[in-house]
Each structure stands twice: as C-alpha cells, then as structure tokens.
Amino acid sequence: MAQPAAWDPHPEPLPVASAPVPEYGTGSLADLLPTLAAGLGVPGMTASIPELAPADRVCVFLIDGLGWEQLRAHPDDAPFMTSLLGTSRGGTGRPVTAGFPATTATSLASVGTGLPPGAHGLPGYTVRDPATGALMNQLRWQPWTEPAAWQPYPTVFQRAHEAGVQAAQVSSPTFAATPLTKVALSGGTFHGRLPGEERMDLAAELLAGADRALVYTYYSEVDGAGHRFGVDSDSWRGQLGRVDRLVQRLAEQLPPRSALYVTADHGMIDVPFDEEHRWDFDEDWELRAGVALLGGEGRARHVYAVPGAQGDVLACWREVLGEQFWVASRDEAIAAGWFGPRVDDRVYGRLGDVIAAARDDVLLIASEREPKESAMVGNHGSMTPAEQLVPLLEARA
C-alpha cells in the first residue's frame, strides 16, 4: 500500500535558491548611509534608496532589536513610531532588509561602512579567523584582532567628515573606544551619554549647530529585553514604549532642514524551549561528526569542517536539518548572494564551509559551548521576515 502523500522517509532539503536574499543595493541597511551622505554632497556616495529626499541635517536613530513586524504588531505601545508609518509627519515608513546574518555586529558594520557583509568582513556573531584558526566574536571582539586589518574600509562618517560634514555619534560611553565602534561607526566626534533623554537632546543640538550634519544615535534595551524575556513580554513592550517616547522627543526638536531616520539592526523571533524547536549541537553526534568549529549563532550557523570532511558535513546537515534550515556550502551561499554581490578574498575564509540559516521557528543551540546564548528566549540571525525586515521611518522638520 502506498504511503500517504504527506509522509516522506527522505524529505527533500530546502533549496538554497529559495532563501529570501537581502535587498543589497536597493533596500538594505548598507544602502542607508550612502543615500543620506549623497544627499549631503559627500563625494563617491550613491543614493540607492531614491525615495529618501536630501536634507542638510540628518540623524539616524538605530534601535537594537526592533523589527518591522514587531513594530507593526504593537501600535498601542509605540504610537509615535506607528504614526511615522504614514504621511502625517512628512515621511513614509517602509521596511528595509538587515543583511545576512541579521545580527548586531554585522548590521552595525553594514550601516557604518555602507557595505554588505561580504565586503566589510563581519559576516556573523562568531566566525573563524583564517590567520589563527580560532573563532572570533565580532561583537565582543574576542580574541583581540587588529581592527584596521579586520575591516580596512573607511566608514561613511569618516568620508562625510573629510567632506566638511559634521559627523557625530551619540551613544553610551561604554562604546566610545570599542574595536567594533572603530571599524563600523567612527568618524567625526563621539559623544558618550547614558540617559536616553540626554542622547536625544544632544543629537538635536548637534544637528542645529552645523549647516551640514550626519548624526547617529543608538538604543540597546529593546534587544536586551527580547533576548531575556521574549518579544511581546511585558519587559519588551515597556522598552518599546520608552524608546517610542525618545523618538518623539528627538523628532519634536529637529531644527529646520533636518530629517530623522529611525531604523534597527535586526528583528527577533521567540523560540520555544523544547526538543522540537531547539536542536542541541553538543548532544547530537551526527551534527558534530567532522566539525572542527561551530560559529555564528542559533539561527545562522557557520560550520567549519575538519580538512577533507566538508562534503560529508554538508550532506549530513542537509539530511538532519534541511527541512527547517537553508543549508548551503560556502560557495553556494556566495553564489546565491547571501553576503552581498561580492565577497572579498580576506573574508572568504571567515565564512563557514557549511552555512545553515533557519527558516522555521527553530534554533540550533550549543548548550555546553554557549550556555548564555542557548538560554535566550528571543533570537535572530536568519533571513525570515521577522528577523530580516527592519523599519525605516522618516520624520522631517
């Protein structure tokens, strides 16, 4: 007797080509600052998002962890940002794509350099350093690596400063001298402020104090609440309401000829704590076979095989995870454009021999190697709309 149509003892893995690749060059985070800088007259910058009209004074407010879908699902908690989804305050809201993987270090580098991950070279939460063979955490910058060698391109802020635009970053003093700030967001002046209200007020002052200005400011607590308690938790909604008030505070202080753009580095998805949704690499002998290093994070993994085992690892991961993850070889992921239209030679070896990106609400944890990350409620990294789509909201003076 034939088996029911829904039953398949050897299900086909997800095709690599079916992954929704970020909109590099037309609507990604890497396109935002070059578009704004082009409007400020910075040489060499291209306006890849043409609907953003030029302004003499521009502020970008990046809210860590606030995805487009999460914002749209909570209008009562974020009434001001919800109002920016329409045209009532001079702008229209739209989503842009974060880039792959949808994670903070990668996205901040894309924002600041105006380059996709394959060029700027921060293609994941943790990736292998080809020079040492060790995993490098690009958020915490551990182990320490020479920043200029790891990411040699100038930031858009540096290029704007050289062109006579007042470039500035207003963020927590903790980030003033970090390597990630240096390679991704430096250029002009850094202003450390702890209270969010002070950041908004200073950002407005910096805009008002120059004929041409490019100011960046940042808020991290939405992301932290999502990781610890989950999207839609009371803590997360409380942080959304707080940052909504900060956005309004800044928008209402914009000087003439100014534009405020609110965006984020990634969205987030809650993953249930059960074996159906959380695969544990440290307890799965099949997935561990032939693997020398496990990089990335739970929804966007870089897998580094022992020499000669790349093909076997790819076949095993596709067989075990292929119904719920897009599983690609390094060259397949590059050809599909996951990391942008090009991958620099210095970046090639940082990418996994196998790369796995979650499609469903699942997670590949490593409970022994990554106990803190494995305990998170909210997660991100992959190419699903909940993680990839981030808001691009505009308010004008």
Helix content: 25-40%
Give a quick account of the main beta sheet: strands, pairing sense, barrel closure.
7 strands, mixed
Major sheet strand order? 2-17-8-1-7-5-6
> Could you name the CATH homologous superfamily of the largest domain?
Alkaline Phosphatase, subunit A
Structural class: alpha/beta
Question: What would CATH call the class of the largest domain?
Answer: Alpha Beta
Counting DSSP H or I runs of 4 or more residues, the number of helices is 17
CATH architecture heading of the largest domain: 3-Layer(aba) Sandwich
Number of domains: 2
Number of strands: 17
Shape: globular
What name does CATH use for the topology of the largest domain? Alkaline Phosphatase, subunit A
Mean pLDDT: 95
Low-pLDDT segments? 1-9
Portion in strands = 15-25%
Give the C-alpha Rg. Answer: 21 Å
Describe this structure in words.
The protein has two domains: 29-270 and 385-396, Alkaline Phosphatase, subunit A; 271-377, Gyrase A, domain 2 (2-Layer Sandwich). Helix content is 31%, strand content 21%. The protein contains 17 helices and 17 strands. Strands 2-17-8-1-7-5-6 form a seven-stranded mixed beta sheet, with helices on both faces. Helix 9 (196-208) runs parallel beside helix 11 and helix 10 (221-229) packs antiparallel against helix 11. The termini are far apart.
